[in-house]
Amino acid sequence: MVELHKLLKRQLKKHLGLTEIPDNLKEFINAIDEAYKQNDDDKLMVERSLELSSKELSEMIAELRRAQVELLQREKMASIGQLAAGIAHEINNPLGYINSNINTLNKYINKYLMALSLYKEMTNIPIYNPTEEYANMITKINSFEKQNKFEYINKDIKELMDESTEGLHRIVKIVQGLKDFSRIDFAQDFVDYELNQGVESTLLIANNSIKYTVKLVLQLSDLPVIKALGGEINQVILNIIINAVHAINSTGKHGTIRIATYENDDSVVLEVEDSGIGIPEESLLKIFDPFYTTKKVGEGTGLGLSIAYDIIVNKHKGKIDVRSEIGKGTTFILQIPKVRD
User: Fold this and answer.
1) Total domains present in the chain
2) Does the predicted TM-score (pTM) go above 0.85?
């Protein structure tokens, strides 16, 4: 038998019992053989193409992931940038009175050093032979203490130290809040995360934006520790809180933000409810779309909620829901699984 495609050769022998091709079938068999060989060539080409496409797809996915991480970081930096003035104010306020207190304490120290010089001068007078000089020195010291209000200074020093210590603790708390908010130590790792702590550290960052026009109501329940991308969850919380503040400010009056945490059978849950202007029904279907925003130009990128959706739903396999009514406000509900699949 002529050299035919291996599969065709087996089929001819198995089904027709042919070991030699009759003259009247040669043209037909050769055409089939050519088709088999062409199919092999096409198959090889497709496999090579698929291999190349698979490699290109992998590279594209890796590039998309890098772009997504960069986009998330930019959005996070944009959020912190928008709040930078407020954060600076929160730090500068205690720094201001700490600086003032230190200046006052420095003046008090100088007065104590002057008093110490008087006490030292008095020690040079022989104790065993009290004289008029000794009595005069006592009078001089008493006069100095009275003139410089040492009785008031002794009381004020403690108050200044207590106030300064409180201010330093406030600054440390804000800096720690920034660190907890960003979770820079575990940027892309699922690690132990406490939702309540995430809420509290995020509120520290947003405090200056909240405190002037918003009454904050916290209803935080005891929750289990979960595994999560803590910095990204905090970014979602911040975005929703700032949106709530903007919604309230748009009403032109003071409002309320209620933040509640609780758990159900499968998830830890966060609710953020505001008394803002509400979201139109036609916008509710689009708010998680990239670049969709109802804010004025320059007030938002339109990426915040789309990134929030990606973080909660795609990365954490959770849920994010929203309900709203014009003129009454909006509630966002986040559910994050207690256990990762």
Assistant:
1) 2
2) no
